[in-house]
Each structure stands twice: as C-alpha cells, then as structure tokens.
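Can anyone check this?
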Amino acid sequence: MTGRRGGSAGGGSAVAIGDPRYDDWEVVREFEEVSAARAWHQHLQESGVTAVLTSDWPLDRFDRGDIALRVPPGRWSEAEELLGDPD
C-alpha cells in the first residue's frame, strides 16, 4: 500500500504511508502522534534538512500510529544534532 495522508488535525506535513521510496532513509525519531511528529519535521525543514514523515500502516482516526521522522542517508548526524537529546 502506497500513498500520502495529511492527517485531519489542521493540515501540515503529510505522512507517507507504506511508501518504499523512503525505506533506505534513516529514522531520527519515532512518534505515536502526528502533531508531535510534524513539529519536529518542521524544525528540521526550517534548519535546511530534508526530512519526511512515514508510517508502514495508515494512522487511526485520531492521527495516531507508528510514525517515523526520516532523513536521507548520510544526514542522520546532522539531524540528530539539530534535534538534540530527547531524554
């Protein structure tokens, strides 16, 4: 299953659902809620780092699921530095 879904809460960054184009991209963070994922995605984009939000499965009706924030191969260190330590 391949497609894009924007989520229902106010638009923002789309989540690529089951999209194999991003399989080799590196996961920087994982989220359960699309609102948090979008905030971190926007931060990377505004810092000049290409990033996407992906999920292997469609999000539920509350825009929750297994959401990954991914960057192209070789950009993980830069993205990690911009996001800082989540703990």
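Reply from J.R.: I decoded it. The chain has one domain: 3-83.
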